[in-house]
Design goal:
The protein has about 425 residues and is α/β, with parallel strands linked by helices. The chain is built from eight helices and 21 strands.
Amino acid sequence: MRRLWPFTVRGTGALALALGCFILAAELGVIELVYFGVLLLAVLVASLISLHLAHRTENVTRALEPDVVAVDQDAVVTVRVGVRTAMPSAPGAWRDALPRGLSGRAQGIFPALGSGLRSGDRSVDLVYTVTGVRRGIHSIGPLSVTSSDPFGLTRRQNLLGDRTRVVVVPAVTELTALSAVAGDTGGTQHSTTNQLGQGADNLIARPYSPGDSMRRIHWRATAHADSLMVRQEEQESTPEATVVLDRGALRWATDAMIAPGNDPGFERAVSACVSVVSRLVQDGYAVEVIDSDGTSLSEPIDGGESVQVEELTRQLATITSRRDDHLPRLPHLFTGATAGPVIVITGRFDREDAAALAPLAHHTTYPLLLAVSPSDGGLERAAEVGWRAAAIGLDDDFASTWSMAVDRGVGHVVA
């Protein structure tokens, strides 16, 4: 970092005046001007010495609230500066270096400090607000503090502390419930119940076995059977859903492979992915998030586990697109089974892609396709082969598009 000229405007003027006094003293022979010039130089030197004897910073720590920043969301940064000073110091200026992934006004006035010889170490809290701009892991810092002596003649700039890593996660949009319109594909309200045993009578009760709790005795069935009967155990199976985030390079701009935040279209897809997962988990689904080649992008998320959704957003903070294109082979992952809701999120999408995904629409109870950059006829063809299809371009309101997509039946397109 470029070093500052050690003198302020006032100090530079004093230095120029001192040099002028020496020159005039030599030209005019006025010895008093030499004394005056020496006095000015002595004041400048004393100011420099006092500036270096002033506050010393022992440590710099940063805390964010919340500790993870979402795109387009704010977080409060508190910078605590531990200071020990031998002499009183004048107010200064501070600036915290912000990366491209964050925006904000990270600067202000560093307060004046009195002598700390008796009071020991003190701390100064500097507070500012940042907004997430680009998904990824970014670093704040170092802290730059510019201070001056009490006379305002000299100044000094110090770079303090280390950089602090900040995770900027994709934005999560609140979506309407899928279970409200999905019928048997719904979440917690529609979880399936399997009874052990065979026959209608066994679905209600079974004969008593030694060790069964008396609290489980089914008294009505006991009266009819004239022998002890107990309530049958029930097994509830949690409904499952799959969210596919297609990372194939052919679907996105080339920049999407380089670093997070480079391709707005890919950013829309990642944000849509975490938003859909959040909605499904709230609806009670156990959700698996995969790439179009079947690679898991996170651990399976249990229904109702919002903490696991937050962990997913952290994992997707650094995700980028990748080489190869596996979307046409996605139906092979579901061959021989009927899956719950399958939501596919992709970028470029055409009629050939729709034809390739046609078999998958018949292996899921709720096929939904979301494309950021569909070509003419792509979504229409997908609707013809059994998908609910919607375009989620950058200019679209994703929440509204989602609502219309889940409200309409199979064969409809939300453009």
